[in-house]
Predict the structure.
Amino acid sequence: MNSRANRVSTSPSDTRQVTLLELLDRLLDKGVVLRGDITLSVANVDLIVLDLAVMLASAERASHLLMPLAVNEELPGPAR
Amino acid sequence: MADVTDVGGTEPNGDQTSPQGWYFYGITARDDTLADQVKSIHQMAHGEALRVIEAGAVAVVVQPVPLNEFGPETLAARLDDIAWIEAAARRHHDVIAALHQRRALLPARFGAVYPSLEALRSILADMHDTLRAHLERVEGCDEWGMRLYSDRAVLLRSLDAAYPALAELRSELEVAAPGRAYLLRRKLDDACEQAAHESLRALAEDAHDYLICQTRAVQFSPRAHSAQRARSSSTSDERAGGEDEVLRADCLVPRADRDAFTSALEAFAAEHQGMRWMCSGPWPPYSFAMPLAGQSDDHSEKGLP
């Protein structure tokens, strides 16, 4: 019932432990990269970025890693 | 010139066999309080002491890590290891969230590692002014992720009023012979789908304009909703739940305007039957650290496609 309610779910800096799914949703493919090219863990370059967004999305990994979590996806946290 | 401040006091691990790299957490302003603040959150990083690298008026927070942890083979294996991903993601977020609570911060991309501090320093020097401008933008703000959903049944019921052609098709269908009815039915389904799509798009634009208008200080991450809209139209699980995602956006909200922001969302949803909203936050400004100069993308100027 309350899954259909409007709500604010507060993140870790407030009260609760954020779920992994929510966290990855927030982290992947975001944030500063200080140099144009994103290189996928090639040695001896200026920057190595774990491009998890690409790697998870491109592999079947995504389904078997994230599906079990997605089942419980409802954003947790206190209803308003 | 840039100099290195070793904040943690511990030397890099002596018996380390792998070459050392530098895990990059974020960029902040350089000031006298930074070193102590970084020291105070050391336990979040679970490893070697965090370091501060300064260049002009900006500074980055990094941590020494063994480079082989981020090599191709190791990584490939680790992407199957949800426990490793979780630990890495939490460490990244915990450090960034703790810094964000204390000062304006541009969070780094998850998993950015530099093989040398020299590379990092020269990039910092090159981008100095851009970085300062971005830091000013996020000062005093949190990121909030928001989503608006619309009930599918309510939306479909509202379509006939806005699209008279649908009502005409329906009345034609009622009197049609079976063969023709089949074709009309398909035509009607297609027309409904098209009308629903247009209607959702218009709703998304209305919501966007309303929120911009009601909360002047709020900035949207434009990339978020243009991309997500495309995704939502093909997301069958939203449909299965009887809802369409109208708008998904990341918003940069000044802390003082947090209540105004949620009130505006509430008000917009209340004006539209069958609409509900969710928002998640406060987060560090993950979606507002990009694009930096030279990294602009095609969607960055226009909020909606």
